[in-house]
Amino acid sequence: MDINEAVQTKDSSTQTENEQTQTEETTRKVLSDEERKRLLSKKIEVSMNLLLNMRILLDASVNRATFKAGELSQVGSVYDDINSLINSNMSL
Known about the structure:
- By secondary structure, the chain is mostly helical.
- It folds into two domains: 1-41; 44-92.
- The protein is 77% helix and 0% strand.
- The protein contains four helices and no strands.
- The chain has helices at 3-30, 33-40, 48-63, 72-90.
- Helix 3 runs antiparallel to helix 4.
- The longest helix is centred in the first third of the chain and has 28 residues, at 3-30.
- The N and C termini lie far apart (50 Å).
């Protein structure tokens, strides 16, 4: 990778981070704290297929070094939660 590619990659990464931050800030402004808590605690149903695909996606992403080192504990926590849901429902 030459220096121009490295700079473009860094610029693209920074732009994506900025877009994510802007989206989170917009979401916080639009929803009150009460609405946000209610929405985040809402129970929903998802298919086992969706959970399996999410686990595969996370596993592939981690293997391809998609995430930064500081994000890995959060990704691992989500992976563990998904894995726990899958395992607890496989015997049903």
